[in-house]
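The protein record filed here:
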Amino acid sequence: MMRSRFALMLLALTCLPLSLTKAESPLLKLVPPDANALVIIDAESLKKTPLAIQNGWTKYSIMDSPKQEIAIPSAAQEIIIASRLETSQHLAAVWDLALVSSSSTIPLTKIAEAEQGYIDWIGSSQMVWSPGNAYFVSVDMKTLGVLYPADRQLAAKWLDWTKSQTGSNLSGYLKKATERVTESQQIVIALDLKDVPQPHRLKAILSKLPMLKENSGKTEKWQDLMLGIQGMTLKLSVDKEISGELTVDFEGNPSILAPYEKELVMTSLDRYGAGISDLDQWAFRTNGTSIVATGKISTDNFRRIMSLMEIPSTQYDDTYTQSDLPTDKPQPAPTKASAADIQLKTSKAYFDALTGLMDDLRKEKDVDTHNYMLWYERYAKKIDKLPILNVDDQLLDFGQSVANTFRDIALAKRTGGINAGVRRAQSSAYLNNWDDLNVSERSAINAEEKTPGYQKMYDSWNQIDADVARLRRTLTNKYGVEF
């Protein structure tokens, strides 16, 4: 099921298990030219890694194992996830497009059953509408396309557009990213940032950086450099653990940013609410026209990163690979589950998935070093997309309440940052000189405006924890099974 909501943000490659560096996939031509974000996954290599095997990345769906970092269809060979992100709107996704190449035929009827949706047609093309707000499209017998949101007109226009494409329409930066996947670096995430910075906003941001207060002569050079930013690429190597290499690419030489490369990159991520705590321990350097950072990625942060642009549900994968396999052994007659049993099973799966997502964010509620508001928004969308058919109504109401609360937390923290900026601007204008605001005054403004956001977060979590305890007792008594 598509997320970002995902987030996430696919395009699968040919059925040949070749590295993306050896030949350009003919399916890249299916990515619309306005895509500015791309995730490329060498699924064939990734599935063989110790971590994937240990954590069951191909064995379980996210519903089966909600704390799982990623779910890969077991028959998938290569995957690309493409998206259009609003870079001026906190990385909100306009659309996500996905394709997964499979070693087996992909039956849409099974997908409709697993996704609890229905078969639809656009012209001669068959697809599945999913209540997860996505369309599953059969590009060919072994290639599945997924479009989010489930905008039927958008799906029709995309299908019509693909018929006339003969080559890749990716931007230069994203096209280069497709060449960076190897058997040892199985995942590449790229964001095209060319022409994104607006001069007036960039100037305002730079004017507030403490490191430039004592080096005002560098401001213009820094601004020229950042106006020439090309993009950001994260390469992930999965083995027993996950290692990462982040590059921020410019037209010019970023060595003029020294020694603040790390601080600037992390500050930029925090401005989007996409803080990644692991970067605190990474090594940063400049190399040619790039800032390069390397280090380890925890499974928690890997799960959050992958929430930006997620692959489809793998429920269909289990459905057809298990039920359609021939066997010489006699099979017992299937037993029909009662409505009560079905509701218990689906409600328990929903509850486990919901609390798993909550547990993941709860870890960061006492951390104020980084800004995690983007992850709150993404996880709210994850909750929205959990399967709801046959789930207990009271549980669904609670899930929607949690999703709305996560959005409120993100909004409160964003608003705090905006208000702090307004107050700083008003104070400096009144004093006619920003420098007349001493460090303690500036810190006081930041603290006062951010405090409501943090208080909202703490109060919300206290309420959520109390509600979970009550709901668990209610559901346990109702179904006679421990929730």
